[in-house]
From TrEMBL:
Source species: Nocardia rhizosphaerihabitans
Coiled coil: none
UniProt signal peptide: none
UniProt name for this protein: Acyl-CoA dehydrogenase
Alphabetical list of InterPro entries matching this protein: Acyl-CoA_Oxase/DH_mid-dom_sf, AcylCo_DH-like_C, AcylCo_DH/oxidase_C, AcylCoA_DH/ox_N, AcylCoA_DH/ox_N_sf, AcylCoA_DH/oxidase_NM_dom_sf
Keywords of the record: FAD, Flavoprotein, Oxidoreductase
Family the UniProt entry places it in: Belongs to the acyl-CoA dehydrogenase family.
Positions of the Acyl-CoA dehydrogenase/oxidase C-terminal domain: 215-349
Length: 351
């Protein structure tokens, strides 16, 4: 995005690629993530964070997608830490933020990835203090959380961030089966659950901002996956021979790979625009996010599908690893708004 930081981004990308590749198909241990200092990448320096921007976060998100890594890092980087930074500070908020950066706590924002509606939680006043009620049907990484961060809207229209421990009485976290084995998701239901803390967001249109971040994060993941599948496919057709020559020398295969390259290149431009809009807090960030999410997640599915075909019979085996990216790309397409949903929202601007 910026030539001034290109060298730093390249170094971060190389380090992330090496670290994530070591984990292989297994989930990346959170201790490994925190030892690299990634949870605090975009956190303020006064909390022992690195003080980076969403541009640096996007580099890591892309590498997570490239490796199809199983980790809650995208949720923490794109949602949890920004949410904690965006609420009014107090001693407990500062403590949770520092513990998150140090790797002592893994907070997960309970934003329903399968719905476009505002968060459906409310905070009720009782004689025993505030109690949380409501539900979210599809929350990524909820089963791995040490702390749930729940956006709640007051009757006045202002937004609060409520912290709830996963083992709190009245809180139910039920895992949702997924075809994509690299991810986890759960249904979160709160029925008069006691809360640990309540913080007030500084902004007003909180759900839109969170969803824009989430959409761009998924687009970064999809771009990384598509880039990996395209590179793997090009490498494969260079060495796979048929009729005494590499299959990559056939015109049909050349055209197929060239077409995929064009799509990935366009997706990269849209993702860069979305990342820039989020990093700069642009007024049209939701528009840039919708464009990036709608196009890039569709491209990732097409690239993974083409990779499966161009790898031939090998592509249909578990040894190839193509199926991992195909399943992940398919789930990405449905998270935080389908391409059709985002295109409809974009079209409505011109109605």
């Amino acid at each position: 995005m910026n030539d001034e930081f290109a060298e730093f981004h390249d170094q971060l990308r190389t380090l992330a690629r090496e670290l994530l590749e070591k984990a292989g198909p297994d989930p990346v241990p959170w201790a490994t993530i925190t030892s690299a200092g990634w949870p605090g990448l975009a956190a303020p320096v006064e909390f022992d964070g690195a003080g980076a921007t969403f541009a640096e976060v996007a580099v890591l998100l892309g590498e997570v997608g490239r490796a199809a890594a199983g980790t809650a890092l995208p949720n923490v980087l794109a949602l949890s830490v920004p949410a904690l930074v965006d609420v009014a500070a107090d001693a407990l908020r500062d403590k949770v933020l520092r513990e998150t950066i140090a790797g002592l706590v893994l907070p997960v924002l309970t934003l329903d990835a399968g719905s476009d509606a505002d968060p459906a939680f409310v905070l009720e006043s009782t004689s025993d203090g505030p109690r949380l009620c409501g539900n979210a049907g599809f929350v990524l990484d909820a089963t791995a959380a040490d702390l749930l961060l729940v956006p709640v809207r007051e009757s006045s229209g202002n937004w609060l961030l409520v912290a709830v421990a996963p083992d709190t009485r009245g809180l139910s976290i039920t895992a949702v089966p997924l075809v994509d084995a690299t991810r986890s998701a759960a249904t979160v239901i709160a029925d008069q659950a006691a809360v640990r803390a309540v913080w007030r967001f500084r902004g007003s249109d909180v759900p839109a901002g969170l969803r824009a971040r989430a959409a761009v994060a998924i687009a970064c993941d999809s771009l990384g996956s598509a880039d990996a599948m395209l590179a793997a496919t090009v490498d494969y057709v260079r060495v796979r021979e048929q009729f005494g020559r590499p299959v990559g020398s056939f015109q049909a295969v050349k055209h197929a790979c060239a077409d995929l390259l064009v799509q990935v290149t366009v997706a990269r431009q849209l993702v860069d625009a979305g990342v820039r809009a989020i990093a700069e807090g642009a007024a049209d960030a939701t528009v840039a996010a919708a464009k990036a999410k709608a196009y890039t997640t569709g491209v990732a599915v097409r690239v993974a599908g083409a990779a499966m075909q161009l790898h031939g019979g090998y592509g249909y085996t578990w040894d190839s690893g193509v199926h991992v990216h195909l399943k992940r790309a398919t789930l990405n397409r449905a998270l935080f708004g389908t391409p059709a949903t985002h295109r409809k929202a974009l079209a409505a601007r011109y109605a």
